[in-house]
Here is the input.
Amino acid sequence: MAENSVAPVARGDTFFKGGTADAAGGLHLEGLVHVFPDTDPDDATNRRSGGNTVCILVRNKHSGAVTPGQVVTWSSTRPHKTTGAPVGSLAGLCAGVVDDHLPSAGAAVDDLYWLIVRGRAKVTAQGTLDHNAHVFGSGTSGRAQAIASPTVAQHINMIGTGSEDVTTGNSGDIIVNMPIGPA
Here is the structure.
């Protein structure tokens, strides 16, 4: 998981790179953990911070493409290796955030992509996300939502903390810190 190791798929790419995804291709890579430098999704040569971003290479098993910055759930068939649908409610157990460096088309069904589980990620807000807000996956197509005073039941589904003020429907940075996944 060292930052200086070579990732089999570059951040911002998928395993099949837009080609036809094969459900059996790259099975040995599912669940691979890699640490990347925290770079700006709009210009990967610029570092957002002095920190790193921890990602898991996962397969999209949802019925459609997942897009950059969406908060997604684990697939019930192979959790920690495959993801399901974008989170659909505050009660949904989140897996992480789809790589915010991907192109807008995202990752097709059965393709492998990086899932952010620690570090900064650009997400789309459902409601206002304030700096230091408790951030959760919302009921709107994998967007992120702030809850001022989460219940104990909701707290287990927290995905991170706001790192800047973001208004409804706009994209902004949060610090992802999933309670599950690699350390």
Remarks:
- Residues 26 and 157 are 29 Å apart (CA to CA).
- DSSP finds one helix and ten strands in the chain.
- The mean pLDDT is 88.
- The two ends are 10 Å apart (CA to CA).
